[in-house]
UniProtKB/TrEMBL annotation:
<protein>
    <submittedName>
        <fullName>LST2 protein</fullName>
    </submittedName>
</protein>
<dbReference type="InterPro" id="IPR051118">
    <property type="entry name" value="LST-2"/>
</dbReference>
<dbReference type="GO" id="GO:0031901">
    <property type="term" value="C:early endosome membrane"/>
</dbReference>
Amino acid sequence: PRLLSQFFFADERVTRVVAEINGLDAELDPQQYLVLLNQLHLSQAHLLAILERIMEECIPTQRHSRDYLVKFPEELLVDNLGNHMLFAAECLLAGTFLEVEEADGAQLRPQARNLLCSLELVRTVLREQSLSQPGSYPEPIRAVLIQFDQLFAEFELSYVSSLVAVKSPEEIYRQQEIIVLFCETVERALHLGYLTQEMIDGYEPLLMFTIPRLAIISGLLIYPEGPLSLEQSPEQMSRVFSPFYNLLKKGTRAQWGCDVGLTLSPHRRDLLRVLSEEELCLLERSLCTAE
């Protein structure tokens, strides 16, 4: 049950697969090479998962900040991101640029080298510790883990930044504003009886449509100075809604498009703003239906 013992056996598996790959001629047996490569990725992912648990147990308050993860696109925040970073570092060190430009790869290579050297040192000291005192983490091991954690975080941020456009602080703030708007919308919808707590607790699929629809109404009418303020330019609006800037303009000045399932007369301006309380309630209840 000890993490260091688990690490020892996981490290043994990685070492064994690497030895098999090194002893295989990939050109003569490409199918077996792909099988072993997949085994290597799985065994490395298992090793990194145990190492992550060891760091949480050994240096929980000395971990390098991962606040930068909020800058990453959501599609990159997957469970195997760490293993992907390790594979990328190995490719860079071997001179292979799979995803980044060659100039960026050349700049990243020193970081990749430092990261992989640090990982080898971590593997060595943890193996030795697992064979001597598998229940303790002396200060030299803690120092090695702290250094590896920092190098890993620095490489992860640098590599992803060279790969995709990370979010700016302004984009992150706008995203947080949308989160607040959705939360306020849900609280108001619960209060007015548009939604029930049971629907939320049960992850009712209809909510995927209902909440954004109601959030548009809230953003335009109830919180007009918030993230859906039409006084700002499309570039200043969150990327969630900026592509629909013109439709939002129509919603307040001429007609409410079919995106929300309701069409209003285009003959009067500011129709949403002159709705009576009863009309607004009817509109919002209509937006809560599946029709």
